[in-house]
Amino acid sequence: MSTQDTANGASAAPSGEGVSDSSYSFTGGCACGAIRYECSSEPVLSFNCHCLDCQKASGSAYASCLMVPAADFGLTGEPKYYTVTAHSGRPIERGFCPECGSQVLARLPHTPRIVILHASSLDDPSRHRPAVDMFASRAQPWDHMDPELPKFPELPPLPDSPLFEVRQP
């Protein structure tokens, strides 16, 4: 994924694939403005992730995120990335602003058609509507999850879409 990938921040339930709809777009970026993005489609999935890696990256009980099609995502600025190994054994590349330190996005090298955005990086985070709590088995005992959201102990079933095809190493 290059720095010209596409993404925009809002909320959606699992839909299976991005919808290129010029009437739906959103923007976001880091706290200092050095990193900016725009997305021209609805999120494929909006979620709260309670895995330990997301807890550490967010500095809180979970990371509230949205997945968008990489083809509909545009990025300006140069995030700095670090790689962690997920519980699955696969790498996650987390991107943050090298100037202000804001977490902005994550990339999954094994699913390059998806970009994960931190809801806190949206210009209008109020548009974000998480659809699920994932990795709820790892939630902190002091975390009070939304009782209205479906809970998955691990990763939920992902929409049947070519966006989620896993590239083999």
How would you describe this structure to a colleague?
- It is a single chain.
- The strands form two sheets. A seven-stranded mixed beta sheet has the order 6-7-8-9-4-3-10. A three-stranded antiparallel beta sheet has the order 1-2-5, with no helix packed on it.
- Strand 1 and strand 2 form a beta hairpin.
- Mean pLDDT is 86; it is low at 1-21.
- The chain is mainly β and 169 residues long.
- The chain is 4% helix and 29% strand.
- It is built from one helix and ten strands; from the N terminus they run βββαβββββββ.
- The chain has one helix at residues 52-58; strands at 26-29, 36-39, 45-49, 63-69, 73-76, 80-85, 91-96, 103-107, 114-118, 132-134.
- The protein has one domain: glutathione-dependent formaldehyde- activating enzyme (gfa) (Alpha-Beta Complex), CATH 3.90.1590.10.
